[in-house]
Design brief:
Elements lengths: L3 H27 L4 H9 L3 H13 L7 H12 L4 H13 L7 H13 L3 H12 L3
Helix pairs in contact: 2-3, 3-4, 4-5, 5-6, 6-7
């Protein structure tokens, strides 16, 4: 029994290290540009960088979580026809995350996402319209 406890704890430690490594690899694959480079691109009007920066602020990844900054960058991307940004804005308004819950604004952003190619945006937009929003 004494040999199983150290083995058990070693397996837990290895599992935790593998999980951390997987998370780091996932983050690097999904955020190929370093944050300062994304910020520079976003400030120059790059819609994809604005979306990525907005998402980083929304989730608190690489920056302190800041819903006001997320809203700013996501709106800048969405008005440039970035469907993913419009979809996230729809979710924020629908759920009241970082903004006052506002179903009319959610519908507006889901419609924008739909108009720019988001099938999920279309589904939610159609559902919200069907229930009176």
């Amino acid at each position: 029994m004494t040999t199983t406890k150290p083995l058990f704890f070693m397996l837990i430690l290895i599992s935790a290290l593998l999980a951390l490594l997987s998370a780091a690899v996932f983050y690097r694959v999904n955020h190929s540009d370093p944050l300062p480079e994304i910020m520079g691109k976003a400030e120059k009007g790059d819609a994809d960088a604005q979306y990525n920066l907005g998402l980083a602020y929304k989730k608190g990844e690489g920056v302190k979580q800041d819903y006001a900054a997320a809203l700013k960058w996501l709106k800048l991307a969405a008005v440039q026809k970035n469907a993913k940004a419009a979809y996230i804005l729809g979710e924020m308004y629908q759920d009241g995350k970082g903004v006052k819950q506002d179903y009319e604004m959610a519908v507006k952003w889901f419609e924008e996402a739909c108009d720019n190619g988001s099938s999920d945006g279309c589904k939610i937009y159609q559902h919200m319209r069907s229930v009176g929003y």
